[in-house]
Amino acid sequence: MSGFCIGAGCLAEVCAGDSTRVVYLGGAVTRSHRLALRWLRHRARWLADALDPAPGVLWAPAGALGPAPGAGPDAPAELRAWADSLTAQEAAVRALAAESACCFTARDCDGTWYALTARTVAPAAAPGTLPRPRFPDPPALTAPEQAARAVR
Q1: pTM for the model
Q2: SS3 sequence, the chain?
Q3: CA-wise closest residue to 97 among 37, 45, 40, 44
C-alpha cells in the first residue's frame, strides 16, 4: 500500500458540533492518504492543545487554567490518543486505500463532538478548488450521555 491517490486527491476535513449545529474547522487536499492523515494528526494535536492547554502556557494568566469539573468523555485526551496511535493510523490508511473514507470522532463531556475525516476525491475541475465540505451527521449519544442530558 503506497498510500497514493492515483488520479485523484485526498480530502482531509475537521468539523465540530453539538446537538444543534455543525462547524467546519478546515480542510486540505493532499496528494496521498498518508499526507492527509499527517494533516489530520497535526490538526488533532492542535485542537487538543487548544481545548486543554498545559497549565504553564505563556498566553494564560497564572491560575487561570484548572481541571474541568465532571466526569465523562474527554475529547482532548481522545484526540491526542488517536494522533499518537500507529494502529489507528494504519487502519485509516487501509480504509483509504480500499477507496473508503475514514472518520474519527472524539466526544467531550458537554456533548460537543469533533470529527476528523479523510476521503479520496476526484481531481478538481480547476486548480486550487476544493470539493464542497460534507458535514458528518452528529454522532448518536451513548446511553450514559443520554442519561446525563436528561438530568440537566
Answers
A1: 0.71
A2: CCCECCCCEEEEEEEEECCCCEEEEEEEEECEHHHHHHHHHHHHHHHHHHHCCCCCCCCCCCCCCCCCCCCCCCHHHHHHHHHHCHHHHHHHHHHHHCCCCEEEEEECCCCCEEEEEEEEECCCCCCCCCCCCCCCCCCCCCHHHHHHHHHC
A3: 37
> What's the pLDDT score for residue 4?
41
pLDDT in tens, 99-145: 778 899 999 888 889 999 998 877 654 345 555 555 555 566 666 66
Q: Give helix 33-51 / helix 86-97 axis angle, nearest 10°.
A: 140
102 and 118 Cβ atoms separated by less than 8 Å = yes
Cell numbers describing residue 97: 486505500
Sheet holding 22-30, edge to edge: 22-30, 9-17, 113-121, 102-107
pLDDT tens per residue across span 35-79: 889 999 999 999 998 888 876 777 777 777 777 766 778 888 899
For residue 143, the model assigns a pLDDT of 65
Q: Within 10 Å of residue 25's Cβ, how many Cβ atoms?
A: 16
